[in-house]
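Sequence, structure tokens passed on for absentees:
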Amino acid sequence: MSTAILTGQPVPGSSLEGDLRSLGFDVRLASDAGETETLLAAVPADQRVAVVDARFVGHPHALRLGLTDPRFAASALPGAISVQPEARRALSRAVARESSASGGLAVATENLAKRIAAALDADGVAVHHPELGTLVAAVPTDPQERNEARQAVAAVDDEAVRLRSAVKARDGFFTTYCISPYSRYLARWCARRGLTPNQVTTASLLTALIAAGCAATGTRAGFVAAGLLLLFSFVLDCTDGQLARYSLQYSTLGAWLDATFDRAKEYAYYAGLALGAARGGDDVWALALGAMILQTCRHVVDFSFNEANHDATANTSPTAALSDKLDSVGWTVWVRRMIVLPIGERWAMIAVLTALTTPRITFYALLIGCAFAATYTTAGRVLRSLTRKARRTDRAARALADLTDSGPLAELVNRVTRGAVRYAPALVAFAAGALVVLGAALSPYGSWWPVLGAAVYVLLSPVAVARPLKGALDWLVPPFFRAAEYLTVLVLAAKADVNGALPAAFGLVAAVAYHHYDTVYRIRGNAGAPPHWLVRAIGGHEGRTLLVTVLAASLTAAQFKVALTVIAVAVALLVLVESIRFWVSAGAPAVHDEGEPA
């Protein structure tokens, strides 16, 4: 239970107390600052507490936005402020100062919430001020102002605003026009029945897994059912975020589920399509793994570029200016959003092609579409990076270093060389990755040439991170490392040419990719990278690449398949256990993706 302290004399006919109770607050009344201090001291330290001016007039959803959002330690709107336990001490100090200054005068409660918010700001507590839009939140000082405020409240449909704000402000064309117009009402239906976003997220995952199972049957009926279920899974995927925004039900566990389940659903569906094709005598595991690698590398490009420029100063470029001009022309916005093949368009394409064609055609279309989208977005970001005059910060450099996922072998090389060799990081990373991938592609299975290429990769990859990654194109280093590791596994498994090698490689890449996604969302939540022991335990990108090439050179194809399976299981267990421990812990950040659709 949260507590709201109403300060000042209650206003006859006001619905404020009832509105606060409907939001889950236990309401207490305080006639002056001294009584506010006494009531605040009586509230348990682990509870949220709000201080609200009794004269407040506004929409219930304005109060919800300002007083109940769990993502912020302190939040305020005109006439009200709310703090979570981590900001209680600062609130207590501010109220104590107000009580001491008032000398027990009741008039001191006027604008008390506003003064407390200013005191918290001065005390270094970040106070969130929600964007209210057309919602009303005011503290009228006389009957005329109160009447005008009440008329303004009546003129705006609180529920309509709440439904609109449940939808992402920026989303893909398919999601905006084909899903959100009705999924927001599904979100409201879930809220009124007490369902949580986590439950809807889990339902979306289960639906996608059933869709993958239908695709794995290899029958036309199974493919049609798979396509329909995949679309319904996406509807639920939109609904869970809309439900979270509609009811402000954000949580650390929800952040973890939302951050990982989209990828789990999509990649499980790829596996289902590959299994279904195999039942029909068509082996498309290489295409399925290639699609997963391409999509994962696209995401790494997105994450690396955004982190590199998260807090860059003087962040301007002619390319960005041109992009802003294009955004001013309405139709170009939707075209540009569609050609990057965001999750809505991508899943719709996969669902339709699954139902009407074959898995092979579906993967061909997916690979071509994603390759075009990756080329378009990466080229634009390279141009922006080369033309903008920006100075990257230490935080950005640290984030990129964490995203490289360098392991113990890279650390050893750096210690031996003491970072003596320093060159263009992106160029070195590309050259090192190309060397190991080409070595695997141009040699027969069992050759030791890929091992030599991997050894050179181990020696060169630390050169790319020998200095802070603050250069214009240094954000390309993590994607190059991801592509090198994943493609090496794909090529060697394909070269083994034994039944089960590519599915085992699919499992290994999926486990490692999960680790990389987990790293990204921790960094975005300002929680830092996964613990160093985990990165060392799973070898880092260079260690895993070298290990896979050695196994391919020293084992038979059948033994290599078993080895890939064992490594996949070991990596999956380590990263999942640590990830679950972190995301369900009290210290995990509440990360919710409100940016561009993935």
Observations:
- The longest helix spans residues 359-387.
- The chain has a mean pLDDT of 89.
- The two ends are 36 Å apart (CA to CA).
- The first strand starts at residue 2 and ends at 7.
